[in-house]
Please model this.
Amino acid sequence: MLKDITLGQYFPGDTIAHRLDPRTKLLLVVLYIVGLFCADSGLTYGVMIAVFLTCARISKVGAKALVRGLKPVLLIIIFTGILNLFFTPGDYLFQFGVLHISRQGIKLAVQMVLRIMLLIMGTFLLTYTTSPIRLTDGLERLLGGLKKLHVPVHELAMMMSIALRFIPTLIEETDKIMSAQKARGADFESGNLFHKAKALIPILVPLFISAFRRADELAVAMECRCYHGGEGRTKLNPLKYAARDYWALACGAAVTAGVIVLGRFGF
Amino acid sequence: MSTILQTENLQYIYPAVEEGEGATVALRGVDLKIEKGSFVVILGHNGSGKSTLSKTFNAILLPSAGSVYVEGMNTDDEEHLLDIRRRVGMVFQNPDNQIVSNVVEEDVAFAPENLGVPTAEIRQRVDRALDAVGMVEFAQHAPHLLSGGQKQRIAIAGVIAMEPDCIVLDEATAMLDPTGRREVLSTAHWLNREKGITVVLITHHMNEAEDADRVIVMDDGKIAMDGAPKEVFVRVEELRSLGLTVPDTVDLLDRLRRDGLDLPLDALTVDACADAVAEALR
Model:
């Protein structure tokens, strides 16, 4: 059951989307999000949907994987849709007590649902096509300027990549602890939610203790390998912008600008 | 031969964890000189101070009294800290807890990256290090999918990439299965033989000491025995009184001697032991 956690899942591949610099992809996602929030009409939404479909096509990520990404937020999407549908004032088409459906409500509901879906699937494209290391590298470099404001950018990036590195190790350990507890008669399946949550305590306690021990040992091992913070560090695979990155950024900026301009002129 | 590691009246005391508890004295005056290019095994039962001793070699622990020198540099000296750590690499017991990255080659590159080595040279060092431990074809793999022995070899590669003069293996074989243990040991011996790297192997497996140049037995924070394997392992009774088992070969020879066979005690390897027994039975 623990094996299907899809945290920051990455599908290795060799498409243009995979080869783009992670910084480019992060910036493109920002542009995409801006575009989504500026879109306000059928035409602009059409453009954003086309942009998303093109990107999905280029990165060769299966539709199934993208739809699966929506599963955790399904409730939020349904909730947003219903709220907007029934509680937006305007020209009522249908009324029943406090519930009413207005023309504006339908439009808003469709827009909001589309917006959330595109937002989530779009950002998933980023994690599907970028390995966690490159993603944290990209973040570290993009936010590098904040170091001047004493934001510990390198430390945060390091923490993130170590956390990602230890996810499989800790999952394996959780499985082991659960098996050990089950062998001694622990029951994780039956009972109501409260009982199930309570049954997790004997798993979480040893897991936490061992995580702290691991952290301690890792810190010593890192020191032994001359780790002394981000200062003066070099990279095995440094990030480099290529021509394709500039093209991709130019396209992204053009589309977003287009959507904003179209919105201004009321299309 | 020149000395690479030297300790002088080295003492280390772990401060009391809780109030009312006494502090633990781990090392009570260790004087030691380790020659460059040698293969030294440090033995001892749990709590004998062998692990603490190894952690003082690269300034992870600083002596409570006395001093430690790495190629003449005092580990107490902040200025030489990185230089000392670069020269004396450490590999620990649990391979999972010393691998930093989720791609093998990125992990091997960690130390040179920290040292600010230029990118092109990091690439060369990583390739050389992976080649030295025989893990080139795993360069792009995720470490958590490898076996224990393979992970430990990656950890060794991560240390070799610093181009150290000395590698300290702190019970690096303790969590491995026999195959993994053999992999790590043969890698350590190869590095010692072919690259001239000094190896300090800390273990409680007697058999791992057979091929060493020198065996040091620790007990109660002090050096109890020190010498070539053949000199140390013939002192069977003394070893047993320190809570250590002798290698299986020596154990067999010792029993046969008690039964009245005329055998030498210093036939350490299985082959030498078999020859000695065959000779005696002729």
In short: The CA atoms of residues 52 and 122 of chain A lie 7 Å apart.
